[in-house]
Design brief:
- By secondary structure, the protein is of the alpha/beta class.
- About 45% of the residues lie in helices and about 20% in strands.
- It contains six helices and seven strands.
- The protein has a seven-stranded parallel beta sheet with strand order 3-2-1-4-5-6-7, sandwiched between helices.
- Helix 1 packs parallel to helix 2 and helix 3 runs parallel beside helix 4.
- The longest helix has 29 residues.
- It is globular.
Length: about 220
């Protein structure tokens, strides 16, 4: 009997770790993908404490070959995942005209293109199986001129979710985003453990009730 599994891309100490632990508490095997070995070790230890198999994979989400290799390894180890969470992002303040073209392209590569490449690698197999969930961490429900590259990236995430839903939704893959409307910090209205509940709820939604976006505006779920 196959064991259900989740892949968390951008598995940092905030939302990534909280989401991984939330799915692990349901007995799911977890594959963590991050660009820092130190981050993987720390987050991996926290998730492993839930008593499930944890695979730690070092890859930068903007390195297409490395990302594909990491995702392929996750599939070899745990099978086609039941849920994929893309949580990588570049979060920085930049006003109109402050960021170079290269800087904008680097932000876009992390915030949007990495999610597209991850979906292109895993969603077809999920669709062929007939079920699965692909979730992207969103933000900036309203664009802000002090966060230009992030506002553009999160607008791109919404469009990407729509495109992926059109492509894979009819075959049974639930594609959605979780929009976080404030700075994430433990013990605040944007506690990562509270935010993680949105991901679990979206993953377990019956198909007739699928939502494309969940908004965390502050406070516990």
């Amino acid at each position: 009997m196959s064991v259900s599994s989740a892949v968390i891309i951008g598995a940092g100490p905030g939302i990534g770790q909280a989401v991984a632990r939330r799915f692990a508490r349901q007995g799911m095997s977890i594959a963590l993908v991050a660009r820092s070995g130190r981050t993987l070790r720390a987050v991996g230890e926290a998730v492993a404490a839930e008593g499930v198999p944890v695979l730690r994979l070092e890859a930068d989400s903007t390195d297409e070959a490395a990302l594909r290799a990491a995702l392929d390894e996750a599939v070899r180890a745990h099978g086609v995942p039941d849920v994929v969470v893309y949580n990588a992002a570049i979060i920085r303040a930049d006003r109109p005209g402050e960021l170079s073209v290269r800087g904008h392209m680097e932000a876009w590569a992390v915030n949007v293109v990495g999610a597209l490449n991850a979906a292109a690698r895993l969603a077809p197999a999920m669709a062929a199986r007939g079920h699965g969930t692909f979730l992207v961490t969103g933000g900036m429900p309203e664009p802000k001129p002090q966060y230009v590259s992030l506002s553009l990236g999160k607008a791109g995430v919404r469009t990407l979710v729509t495109l992926l839903d059109q492509e894979y939704g009819p075959a049974g893959v639930h594609v959605a985003s979780v929009t976080v409307a404030g700075p994430v910090a433990p013990g605040t209205d944007f506690d990562p453990d509270d935010i993680a509940e949105h991901y679990w709820r979206l993953h377990t939604q019956p198909r007739p009730e699928w939502e494309r976006e969940a908004l965390h505006a502050g406070g516990p779920r």
